[in-house]
Amino acid sequence: MGEGDGDGTARFELTLPAEPAFVSTARLFASAVARHFGCGEEEVHDVKVAVSEACASALRAGADGGSLNIWATRQGPRLTFEVEGAAVPGKPPRPGAPGEEIAPALGLELIRALFEDARFAPNERGGTNLTFSLPVPPAPV
Amino acid sequence: MARSALAEPTGRCSIDILVQSRVQGAWTVVEVKGEVDLYTAPKLREEILSRVESGDRKIVVDLGDVGFLDSTGLGVLVGALKRLKEQDGTLALVCPQGAVLRVLQITGLDRVFPIHESVDQALAT
After folding, report:
1. Closest CA to A97 of B84, B112, B36
2. A53, B39: Cβ pair inside 8 Å?
3. Rounded to an integer, what distance in angstroms lies between the CA atom of residue B72 and that of residue A95?
């Protein structure tokens, strides 16, 4: 798990405790990887938002006690992020204060507005993963 | 309900967020520093709630020093706006140009909250 397959592909993986306190760590990882591959600050922020939203969604869906898994894969001109267990939209949210139930829908709206190719797909554990990608500058020869 | 006097600023702090309130004229300024997400948003909610329960009806949330805010933070702000409107109160935001303002714009919430570039501008309304 790391750089240098010789063909320009690099893959990083982060596993964190599935607890709200670690969502910021997920953002830190994602932003560091995005910067490492040459993304500008606005794109780095977009990545942070999408990863943060996906982790929050996974936690709301009940990942508590398990783990948050995030992958970052650079292949050719694209950097792809995948977050395990990000819930399918439409799942009933945990109760918060009145008015706050809007948050999951806003989170989904943000992900989709920031990344055209964002999609939720089933994983082998009966959950759904969020995947999205962005262009990155070419790898040095 | 009479407003209780804030003799000293109140606040809540954890590693990733600092939320402090102070009274300025007719307004309560709730200043937030750090990142607002699933973990830290409850601190913001608690502080705003505590100010509303103390009788504050004109609240400005100063997001000027907030480096990151996601849907959980937006949810807290929307919930607070709803609560204040029910009490004939006002919730305004201070949010200079940048990433957080962009998030408010993408979600359309920039049309739901009065948003100002600075605390001074907010207090002048």
Report:
1. B84
2. no
3. 12
CA distance A10 to chain B (A): 28
- Residue bearing tokens 């894969």: A73
Beta bridge partners of A14: A70
> What residues in chain A have their Cβ under 8 A from chain B's Cβ atoms?
20-21, 23-24, 27, 42, 45, 48-49, 52-53, 55-56, 59-60, 96-104, 106-107, 109-110, 113-114
Cα–Cα distance list, B79 to A6, A25, A101, B31, B70 (Å): 51, 26, 9, 17, 14
Question: What is residue B2's predicted lDDT score, i.e. its pLDDT?
Answer: 41
Helix (H) / strand (E) element for A106: namely: helix A103-114
More confident residue, B58 or A7: B58
Q: Give the confidence band of A100 by pLDDT, cuts at 50, 70, 90.
A: confident
DSSP class of residue A8 equals S
Q: Are strands B58-69 and B90-94 parallel, antiparallel or unpaired?
A: parallel
pLDDT tens column, A26-39: 999 999 999 999 99
Which residues fall within 8 angstroms of residue A93, CB to CB, at 6 or more apart?
A60, A101, A103, A104
Quick one: tokens of B90?
């006002």
Contact A101 B37 (CB under 8 A): no
Using alpha carbons only, what angle is made at residue A35 by residues A31 and A40, rounded to the nearest 5 degrees? 105
Backbone conformation region of residue A29, classed left if phi is above 0, alpha if psi is from -120 to 50, else beta: alpha
A106-131 pLDDT tens trace:
999 999 999 999 999 998 888 889 99
CB within 8 Å: B74 and A106: yes
A50: closest chain B residue by CA: B70
